[in-house]
Design brief:
Catalytic activity: [protein]-peptidylproline (omega=180) = [protein]-peptidylproline (omega=0)
EC number: 5.2.1.8
Distance between the termini: 29 Å
Number of domains: 2
GO molecular function, one term: peptidyl-prolyl cis-trans isomerase activity
Shape: flat
Number of helices: 7
Protein name: peptidylprolyl isomerase
Family: Belongs to the PpiC/parvulin rotamase family.
Strand content: 5-15%
Radius of gyration: 21 Å
Helix content: 25-40%
Length: 300
């Protein structure tokens, strides 16, 4: 999972990545990485006190997590129960109500997805069309120098109030005309990232140094300065200042071919996983959480 700040110390900020280590348990949604389902429809009793999947609670009474985390827990629980039905995970494996699943369950979910998601390899023509339409995405060596203020979204936090605070600070920092002094002060005062001790400085980062959703927003344009919108990541809300950018070098087609194929394969995997989760939701009793559902198989 993503952690660290590229030299500014440890902590979850969504800005740097590393290879996950093996542990005895994992938060729901971490192993494997489960993308957020993009379209949600009401399923079950949205007003129920405790959200659950097939009578398995997703949180303790009175401790409902933020909606995004709750959906992640629901998706992971759907997969955990599917792994049990397929005989990949023992019936004695039980999910906790704290968003944590066992290492056995994480491994079983990975096996389940390997056998359930049958993905075709992208063809040469499809890869070439994708490269021609998105050449900048495959630039090599593109970097940005950043600093940020992280408002972490944690269980029990009032997300609406947190968003309002972050948006107010965003406006204040975009209007500041003090050579960046206020930004550093705000990072030290408000940021939930260890980089706050250093004025929010993250240093130079490439795409691969960032959580994918963080990189998508930061590298989507050539803007310099405090970005005009909050950047959302799995860890929270970021007020981001781009201090400098260095353009990457565009590779030729043969150099880019492996990266293009990998990008298309990932897109296909995400789409197939969304469809599989919709199928599982349609076959389950889902109460107190909104996820997409389908009544018939979508994954071929």
């Amino acid at each position: 999972m993503e952690h660290g700040c590229n030299g500014s110390g440890g902590g979850h900020c969504g800005c740097a990545s590393s290879t996950p280590s093996s542990t005895s348990s994992a938060p729901m949604g971490d192993l494997p990485a489960i993308p957020e389902v993009p379209a949600f429809q009401p399923v079950g009793e949205a007003g129920a006190e405790v959200a659950r999947i097939n009578n398995t609670p997703l949180h303790a009474p009175g401790q409902r997590p933020p909606e995004r985390e709750l959906r992640q827990r629901a998706c992971t629980e759907l997969l955990r129960q599917a792994a049990q039905r397929e005989g990949l995970l023992g019936a004695d494996d039980a999910a906790g109500d704290d968003g944590v699943i066992s290492e056995r369950a994480s491994q079983a979910i990975e096996q389940l997805l390997e056998q359930s998601l049958h993905l075709p390899e992208p063809g040469e023509d499809a890869c070439r069309r994708h490269f021609d339409a998105n050449p900048a995405r495959f630039a090599q060596g593109e970097r940005v120098r950043l600093r940020h203020v992280l408002f972490a979204v944690t269980p029990g936090v009032d997300v609406r109030a947190l968003t309002q605070r972050a948006e107010a600070l965003l406006i204040e920092l975009r209007c500041a005309d003090d050579a960046g002094l206020r930004f550093a002060e705000a990072a030290r005062q408000w940021s939930n990232c260890p980089s706050g001790q250093h004025g929010g400085e993250l240093g130079w980062l490439g795409r691969s140094d960032c959580a994918p959703e963080f990189a998508r927003d930061v590298f989507a344009s050539q803007e310099i300065g405090v970005l005009p919108r909050l950047v959302h990541s799995r860890f929270g809300l970021h007020v981001v200042e781009v201090c400098a950018r260095e353009a990457g070098v565009l590779p030729d087609w043969q150099q880019a071919r492996p990266a293009v194929a990998q990008a298309l394969h990932q897109q296909t995997w995400v789409s197939a996983l969304h469809q599989y989760l919709q199928l599982l939701a349609g076959q389950s009793e889902v109460v107190g959480v909104r996820i997409a559902a389908a009544d018939s198989p979508l994954v071929q």
